[in-house]
Amino acid sequence: KVVFLNGRFINEDEAMISPFDRGFTFGEGIYEVCISVDGKIVDLEDHLARLDHSLEAAGINPPPERSMLSGLMHDILARNSIENGFVYIQVTPGKTPRNFVALPAERSTLLISTGPAQLEGSKAFKNGMRVQVLPDIRWKRRDIKTTMLMPQVMAKRAALNAGFDDVIFYDDLGITEGSSSNVFMVTADGALVTRPVSHQILSGCTRNTLIELAILNGMTVIERPISHDDLSNAKEIFLTSSTYLVVPVVELEFGEKAITYSCNETKKLQGIYIKYLH
Ligand code: PLP
């Protein structure tokens, strides 16, 4: 497998990063995950705009290849003979002495890699997921797509160990988002509800596209937090992300409560989204 690291396409076994990289010492880093469908990168400009937002908000210098990223992403797919799969981009500030505020003298570290993805072929896409609702223990700048992912890893591991497929987080206002996805509810009268974009959630590219598609298809979309009571009254719940696409939640556990959902509307939205992808 070929990766792109700091200006060069190299075999993944030869890719090396300094132990003094601030991504390693301080967990300072941001990332993007896009998908390629039939060789075309989905919502590419939105992902690059979010990458710029994350870099700016985190105070990380853009990598010198910033203006070439789109070309490099297509190159990494071609060099690995992948038409349908993911492209991963990670940027860290590069290396400095282990000092909290030291500014790197050299370039930001840039890694681009790729691999296959199941997308609409996944079991979750077809059959839905069982999710556990857990408190959101993350920091308060969730609009930055940071590689500092310990809370998500810990929560998702706990959920998997308890027999679930994924996690939905909540804070004082209600549901925030999934461990790596945005959350939508279909109300009894068929409207879509999802949390408005703020510092509390990631502005999901799939979320944003799905909202546009739903409106184009005559649906009502309401951006407001989903409360705990809403979960009991909802007709359907689903998750969106670049790699999940649109995944139905068929069962949800919240404390002592277990709620099951149908997925007719979600299946319709899956159809609309798949048409958009191809
Ligand atoms: N929310 C979080 C916390 C995520 O990590 C992700 C994606 O990984 C998303 C939402 C969905 O974002 P997107 O649709 O841009 O993949």
From TrEMBL:
Enzyme class: transferase
GO molecular function: transaminase activity
Source organism, top-level taxon: Bacteria
Signal peptide: none
Keyword Metal-binding: no
InterPro entries for this protein: Aminotrans_IV, Aminotransferase-like, BCAT-like_C, BCAT-like_N, Class-IV_PLP-Dep_Aminotrnsfr
UniProt entry tagged with the keyword Amino-acid biosynthesis: yes
Catalysed reaction, written as an equation: L-leucine + 2-oxoglutarate = 4-methyl-2-oxopentanoate + L-glutamate; L-isoleucine + 2-oxoglutarate = (S)-3-methyl-2-oxopentanoate + L-glutamate; L-valine + 2-oxoglutarate = 3-methyl-2-oxobutanoate + L-glutamate
Pathway: Amino-acid biosynthesis; L-valine biosynthesis; L-valine from pyruvate: step 4/4; Amino-acid biosynthesis; L-isoleucine biosynthesis; L-isoleucine from 2-oxobutanoate: step 4/4; Amino-acid biosynthesis; L-leucine biosynthesis; L-leucine from 3-methyl-2-oxobutanoate: step 4/4
Keywords (A to Z) from UniProt: Amino-acid biosynthesis, Aminotransferase, Branched-chain amino acid biosynthesis, Transferase
Enzyme Commission (EC) number: 2.6.1.42
Known role: Acts on leucine, isoleucine and valine.
Family: Belongs to the class-IV pyridoxal-phosphate-dependent aminotransferase family.
Protein's recorded name: Probable branched-chain-amino-acid aminotransferase
